[in-house]
Amino acid sequence: MLESREITMKFGPVTALDHVSLKLEPGHIYAMLGPNGSGKTTWMKLATGLLKPAEGEMLWNGAPVGVESRREIAYMSTEPYFYSWMSIRQVGKYYQDFFRDYDPARFDALLARMELDPALKVKNLSSGMMAKLKVAVTLSRRARVWLLDEPFNGIDLIARDAIAQSIIESAGEDRIIVLSSHLVEEMEAIADWAVFIRKGVLVESCDLEEMRQRTSQSMADRYRSIYGAEKEVI
Amino acid sequence: MEFDPMTPIWAQVAGHLRLEMVTGRLQPGEKLPSGRDLALQFAINPNTAARVYQELEAEGLCSTRRGLGTFVTADRARLEAIRLSLAREAAEQFLSRLDKLGLSPGDALRMVGEAAATEDSQHP
Amino acid sequence: MLKLIGYEFRKTWFAKVILLCITALLELVFVIGLLTSDESTIALSAMLLALVATGGVMAMGLISVTILHRDMNTRQGYMLFMTPNSCYKILGAKVLENGLTILVTGAFFALLGALDITLLFGHYKMIDRMWELLTSFMTKMVPQLNLQGHVIFLFLISSLCSWVLTVLTAFFADVMASSVLRGKRGGGFVAFLIFIVLNVLIAWGSRQLTDARIFPGVESMFIWTSVIDLALAALMYWVTALVMERRLSV
Predict the structure, then answer these.
(1) A194: distance to nearest CA of chain C, Å?
(2) What pLDDT, in 10s, does the model give residues B6-48?
């Protein structure tokens, strides 16, 4: 279980997360939703240990996140982060060097599925290829938790389907997958829980199918009602 | 398959499979995809896929045999019963729609007759 | 750990290659100068080599500081900090890689220098005698000064150790700037001040320690300052890693 307890993060005067308590259980694919700056990325980085909180704690199976949790939690940031001198193959090698749960065969399979040539250098990748590489290498870790920040960004439709497929393949009873994306509609069928964050505060967390049954709303409708835009009545 | 995101997805996938089963496109006794494969096939959450089979099993349309997989029921009578009940449901929905358009069941019946005649002349 | 060190080496590899190329070029010019007995070429290339030697060793240290800064402040740093390595290991790898680089670079230039001087003396017998005159004169003037080979060696070691300490002090200051002081007004400036103050303190402290003792010889003084510098460097490493582990947000 991945849990934040009253976690608070400040960047200078700005409060990015305000006493957010959230529990994520294995066996689910969570859609973490909210506009830019709402705190989704911050929460994920805190879970990875890249950020240190001002208050509160982030726990993995009861213990504060740190070296041990990073062995089991895989994070993919929105921004590109590979060393520019590396080739795609070398990126895989780097992951293999440091992550015990990395599966090179899965990486090769995902590269093939996304049509990425392993010999290409990172500095020569288009933004679309970079986006695909990030997802491919992150999902090649047989992690317990995957935190994917905007995995569909900048990716063409066919590749998005491939990524959705890879995500579903990775899911399991003992795994947690968290997806944050602006493409809310893309995640309707893949996610089974939605977490809505607004201005650093957790607004709502719900079982999607149950919500649909109860309110006849889609996740996108719920998003609109929480974040304010009026749905056009035709 | 395109989903309506405002209604439970498990119900939509179950409806699709139900149709396949009662019309024979999925043969009685045929092996169905595993939960994970179903999820991949429809690009849905694995828990949703599991729910689909749970519901269909509750209706008696399929059964899971531990270690072997999930199979369409071999009970043709059951399949037939559900097929007819779906047809009846479609008929009731039809009548209800025409009622909303101001047609009585009698008018509706006449309209069906006309439509059937047109259908026959186009596809002899 | 080895893997971390390997990647640190890879990050600094380009600068090392440049340094090697410049040195090779100058060395070539020096040798050509010797062969053609062109004194101005010899003198110029020798001076530049001496400059590149001292500058090169210092540059190696600076580059390591730059890379740490980049790892803490840009997205490329995610590569490093999202691995399941503690900051003790991460910083340790950087310190080891850099320490080794400084020592090897220092040794390299020392050997090159020794080689070039030997070549020079071999070519110009007169300089050899001039050097003997100069050293005997200086020894008469300053009795403690001992320009024997092993003393020079110890002097170099002590200089390198002192530079390693300086680099680690810079690491500490940069980590403070990127973690505790980040987002605070004038954080970078404060970090720089910390760096200056620490250097001044270390210099003052060393002076106290070397004045207070009566050294039987210059050798022991050099050994003593090297030990002190390395001990302080270790302390600096430990404190820096602690701050990184607790307070660093990448």
Answers:
(1) 26
(2) 999 999 999 999 999 999 899 998 999 999 999 999 999 999 9
- Strand positions, DSSP E, A61-213: 63-64, 73-76, 145-149, 176-180, 193-198, 201-207
The arithmetic mean of pLDDT across residues A119-148, rounded, is: 95
* B10 → chain A, closest CA residue: A209
Tens digit of each residue's pLDDT (9 = 90 or more) over A40-71: 999 999 999 999 999 999 999 999 999 999 99
Q: Give the residue from B21, B14, B16, B15 showing the smallest Cα distance to B74.
A: B21
Q: Do C3 and A98 touch (CB under 8 A)?
A: yes
C to B contact (≥3 Cβ pairs closer than 8 Å): no
DSSP letter, residue C37: T
Q: Is C170 left (phi over 0), alpha (psi -120 to 50) or beta?
A: alpha
pTM: 0.88
Backbone angles phi and psi of A65, in degrees to 5: -65, 150
CATH placement of domain A2-227 = 3.40.50.300
Give the nearest chain C residue to A77 (CA atoms). C78
Task: Report d(CA A82, CA A123) in Å as an integer.
Answer: 9
- Put simply, the chain A residues between 16 and 75 with a CB less than 8 A from any chain B CB are 27-29
DSSP structural state of residue C142: S
CA distance C167 to C115: 29
Burial degree of B1 (CB within 10 A; 0-12, 13-18, 19+): exposed
Domains and CATH numbers, chain B: 9-74 (1.10.10.10), 88-122 (no CATH)
Distances in Å between the alpha carbon of A225 and those of A1, A35, A231, C176? Answer: 29, 13, 8, 44
Q: Which residue of B has its CA nearest to A166?
A: B40
CA distance A13 to chain B (A): 39
The distance of Cα C86 from the centroid of its chain, to the nearest Å, equals 26
**d(Cα C169, Cα C177) in Å, to the nearest integer?**
12
Segment B72-101, tens digit of pLDDT: 988 899 899 999 999 999 999 998 998 899
What is the radius of gyration, based on Cα positions, of chain A?
Answer: 18
Pairing of strands A55-60, A63-64: antiparallel
Give the DSSP per-residue string, A184-218: HHHHTTT-SEEEEEETTEEEEEEEHHHHHHHH---
